[in-house]
Amino acid sequence: MTSSQLLGITTFTYLLATLLYVFIIIFKAYRLYLLAVTTTVIAFLIQTGGIGLRWFESYGMGIGHAPLTNMYESVVFFAWTIALLYLVMEWKFKTRILGLFAVPFASLAMAYASFSSEISKEITPLVPALQSNWLIAHVITCFVGYAAFAVAAGMGIMYLLKASNSNPDAVDKSTVTGTLSVLPNIEDLIHKTMLFGFIWLTAGIITGAVWANSAWGTYWSWDPKETWSLITWFVYAITLHARYTRGWAGKRLAWLAILGLLSVIFTYYGVNFLLSGLHSYGSN
Amino acid sequence: MKNTNQLWTFFASVRLAIFTLCALSLTSIIGTIIPQGESFSRRIDVYNPVFAKFLMVLDIPNMYSSWWFLGLLGILCANLIICSIDRFPISWRLITADQLALSPERIGRLDHQESWSLNASLSETAQSLRERLDKAGWQTSIRENTAGLLIFSQKGAWSRLGVYLVHLSILLIFVGAVIGNFLGFKGSVMIPETESTDKVFASGSAQPLDLGFEIRCDAFDIEFYPNGMPKEYRSRLTVREKGKDVRQEDIEVNKPLSYKGITFYQSSYEGYKDFLLKFTDPTDRTTKTFKALYQQESTWPEKSLRFGVINAETKGNQIFRTKIWLQDKTQQPSIFWLETGKETEIKIQGKTFLLSAKQMYATGLQVAKDPGVWLVYSGCVMMLVGLYVAFFLSHRRVWLILRQDADNATTVLLAASANKNKTGFTSIFAQLNELLRASKG
Ligand code: HEM
After folding, report:
1. What is d(CA A35, CA A231) in angstroms, rounded to the nearest whole number?
2. What is the pLDDT confidence band of residue A272, given thresholds at 50, 70 and 90?
3. Could you tell me the pTM of the whole model?
4. Rounded distance, CA B307 to CA B98, Å?
5. CA angle (A154 as vertex; A149, A156 as ends), nearest 5
6. B271 φ/ψ angles, rounded to the nearest 5 degrees
7. Which one of A12, A195, A246, B340 has the fewest CB atoms closer than 10 angstroms to its CB?
8. What distance in Å separates the CA atoms of residue B227 and residue B234, rounded to the nearest whole number?
9. What are the backbone angles phi and psi of residue B275, rounded to the nearest 5°?
10. How do the domains of chain B map onto residue ranges?
11. Strands B409-418 and B185-192
């Protein structure tokens, strides 16, 4: 068994879980929910094994390093963090149905990592600039933040679907959105998830700055990737203030969660492929 | 007076904060699309003249240090300072207030309320409730007033300062950045192996800057992975001050050398056609290194020795052997290959030397002095601490009002509030309620 086989199986298992969630919603087969969650847990465990094995394999090649150093590895880690965060929330808040809005992000990320011709899956040695523990801290903190924002945006979509329902607060099992938990609860959860993401994004920007300072002597150089991460940070700062002091809650918060994720995706993906900068390592 | 008041309110408003943050986000996008830096300002005449003039007035090629962008950051700072000054006294009062002086009517209007009666005397009930609260980590204070007995306890009052820590940390980071900008410098320098310099060149302007000491590159070395990718660049640097070597260190990418506030970062290198030949005396390991220009003659006058590099062979990115000629007064010239990284024995005038050859490089160093970086880092730590406090801690307050109804009957009113995470506090309140109701007095 190699790590790429395991990660390939992971992709299909996440896709299967996504299909299950969709099936549950369309055919109102709510009793299958536990099965869908179990499938997600299995996918997550296989993925954990795959990431661990990839790490181990890199040592076998004599170029041992944590599997967090190129586009492929970071997308896989992104999917892993989304699944972890979702499962923790499922366990802690019993949100039900949240899976439909979180697991597809993990599937999409894994499918992109596995099938895109733009990114290479090879384990490559690290060029000198990337040999730093700050890099590991940087990638982990950023992606935990990104994953939280993805989950928040998923809940944002859920909120908007439910709010557009004629009778949003009814707990009605006969319609798709009727089974979702009550609106104020989702709203509160979106907000909390964004706060959680904001702290990690802040830590991600800081660790990135410290890394840049130890490698080049400049902690901030306004390259497009840095600037976009700051823009994303501003978007969430605006959201926090708008909600806290101007009462921008409910639908507006849900839209801001989605806008925030778009900014995250641009920072992460758009900058690598549409703009150029220091972070060119991500484009291989 | 009215005008200054309006101005103050304007600068203290969150409305302005949201506007400024939106403006910063939107304008920041420009600089990620239009390339930044000097080379672009020289190329700007490729645009039509009106548009080019527009770009120049707004200083778009250096927009992050342009007057209007710094102006926006200035507004953000003013906003933060004035907003904090405006609101801090209120928060401070809430932290230090005498909560036992709160009127029963106000307590009666709090979010969470529970009330029950007991068959116990006032003082017994008070004692038992206080003990239970204390055990659960709620330290109590008590006071008698007209309504009866008032017991109060709170947790996390200081968490109200979290937001101020976050806002102050932003100012701290700005101050650090400004100090770095005015009192520090960024530069770079290329130093060929064995040579030294006391000047570096400022980034952007290439103006020479005095270091105040000398820095010498003793050796430069690259390692490659089997697939040919670079694995590590390493320079051995020596700091010389007043003619004395004061510090020697190997630097790598991500592992710089700092001396007197100036830091040297490994950033690039340049390979020369020339070579370094090193003679080592095996008896005492003393060495003598010569720069040998490619296919030219070098000499060691004390030994009347002449030598040079004829040729070199490369494999991948690296030279793996070098062809040398060597001649002293008495002998015929000898020609031989030296393997890179190996010392080879040679005999000169009855004495044995070890000779090694390597390609000569110059190390490219990024040089920075930033006396503000510690403020920036402190600001970062403060921001993370502040965010944690602001998001996850809250100021929770609990009051108990005890009224004596008859000799052996007491009514208890439990009231509480939290300034954040209200849903989470609901369950805390339910637990408190259960815990305190169980008290028999
Ligand atoms: C990038 C800049 C800023 C960041 C990162 C930031 C961060 C924060 C955070 C994390 C909170 C706590 C929100 C919560 O608990 O949900 C907060 C609250 C607040 N911020 Fe900012 N802030 C920024 C700029 C500003 C500015 C310029 C103002 C100026 C008016 C401001 C005014 C406030 C106010 C009034 C609150 C509510 C404080 C309270 O009563 O608890 N912020 N800010």
Report:
1. 40
2. confident
3. 0.89
4. 91
5. 90
6. -95, 140
7. A246
8. 19
9. -130, 160
10. 2-89, 97-156+394-437, 162-184+370-384, 185-369
11. unpaired
B358 neighbors B341 (Cβ within 8 angstroms): yes
CA dist B289 and B218 (Å) reads 10
User: Which residue shows structure tokens 């490369």?
Assistant: B314
Taking only the tens place, the pLDDT of each residue in B18-76 is: 999 999 999 999 888 887 776 666 666 667 778 777 777 788 878 898 899 999 999 99
> Which residue has tokens 């969660």?
A257
Tell me the C-alpha distance between B124 and A182, whole Å. 44
Tell me the shortest Cα–Cα distance from B169 to chain A, in angstroms.
12
Q: Do B375 and B173 contact (CB within 8 A), yes or no?
A: yes
Interface confidence (ipTM) of the complex: 0.90
With CB atoms and an 8 Å threshold, state whether B266 touches A224.
Answer: no
Atom of ligand 1 nearest to the CA of B162: 12
Token pair belonging to B130: 């206080």
Phi, psi of B368 (to 5 degrees): -140, 140
CA B163 to chain centre: 21
Phi, psi at A64, each rounded to 5°? -55, 130
Nearest to A207 by CA among A282, A113, A127, A132: A132
Amino acid at B342: K
Long-range CB contacts for residues B180-183, cutoff 8 Å, separation at least 24: B180/B370, B180/B371, B180/B372, B180/B373, B180/B376, B181/B372, B183/B369, B183/B371, B183/B372
d(CA A259, CA A248): 14
Interchain contact A218–B (C-beta under 8 A):
yes
**Which string of DSSP letters, residue by residue, matches B174-210?**
HHHHHHHHHH-EEEEEEEETT-EEEEEEETTT--EEE
Token couple for B432: 């408190």
The pLDDT tens digits of the residues spanning A172-221 come to 554 445 455 677 778 888 999 999 999 999 999 999 999 999 988 899 99
Q: A215 to chain B: nearest residue by CA?
A: B254
* Angle, helices B14-33/A224-246, rounded to nearest 10 degrees: 160
**Would the CB atoms of B367 and A217 count as touching at under 8 Å?**
yes
With the most atoms of ligand 1 within 8 angstroms of its CB, the residue from B14, B15, B95 to mutate is B14
Burial class (CB in 10 A: 0-12, 13-18, 19+), B378: middle
The Cα–Cα gap between B240 and B213 comes to 6
Angstrom distances, CA of residue A169 to CA of A32, A178, A203: 24, 8, 37
Residue of B14, B16, B25, B220 to mutate when probing chain A, most A C-beta within 10 A: B25
> Are A284 and A75 in contact, with CB atoms under 8 Å apart?
no
The structural domains of chain A, with segments of one domain joined by +, span 1-117, 127-284
Which three-class secondary structure state does DSSP give residue B262?
strand
B229 contacts on A by Cβ (under 8 Å)? 124-125, 127
CA distance B420 to A127: 46
Helix (H) or strand (E) holding A96: none
* Residues whose CB is less than 8 angstroms from the CB of residue B231 and which lie 6 or more positions away in sequence, other chains included: A125, A128, B222, B223, B224, B225
Question: What span, in angstroms and rounded, lies between the C-alpha atoms of A117 and B271?
Answer: 36
CATH topology of domain B97-156+394-437: TATA-Binding Protein (3.30.310)
The residue in chain B having the minimum alpha-carbon distance to the alpha carbon of residue A222 is B64
pLDDT bracket for residue A284 (50, 70, 90): very low
Q: Please, what's the b/e burial string for A267-282 (b: 16 or more CB within 10 A of its CB; e: otherwise)?
A: bbebbbeebebbbebb
- The residue behind tokens 């950023």 is A142
Alpha carbon distance, N-terminus to C-terminus of chain B: 59
Q: Please, are residues A54 and A3 in contact by the beta-carbon 8 Å criterion?
A: yes
CA distance B251 to B265: 7
Q: Return the residue matching tokens 């707990």.
A: A171
Nearest residue of B to residue A93, measured between CA atoms:
B424
